[in-house]
Please model this.
Amino acid sequence: MTEPSPPTESPSQPSRPEVICAKCHAANAHGANTCGACGAHLYVSCHHCGHRNERHQLRCTSCGLRLHRTFWRRLRKKVFPDASMVRPQHVLLLVVMVLAGFLLILLIVDRKLLF
Ligand SMILES: [Zn+2]
Ligand SMILES: [Zn+2]
Model:
């Protein structure tokens, strides 16, 4: 037993970069599943081939398919955020859009009734 055992974790590993959290952009050690700062998942599994990709990536590094859901789902998340980040202008925009749609329907119904 003359040889010292190699350290399990060297301070600088250029081949293993840190994983940047897609939510809060905090740097996390490689191998962690969730962000140490906000608890968000750092990886996302490709729904096509199952390859585990870093969450901030837009496309699967294995098959090249889009990793994230459709535009509508992202928009829905923006309009209805989980919590805390509710912006007044988003709510206002939604209310205006709903009102405009409602008025349009009323106008159409009104015209149909007139004719
Ligand atoms: Zn985070
Ligand atoms: Zn894939």
Summary: The pocket of zinc ion (ligand 2) is lined by residues 46, 48-49, 51, 60, 62-63, 65 (CB under 6 Å). Residues 70-115 form one domain.
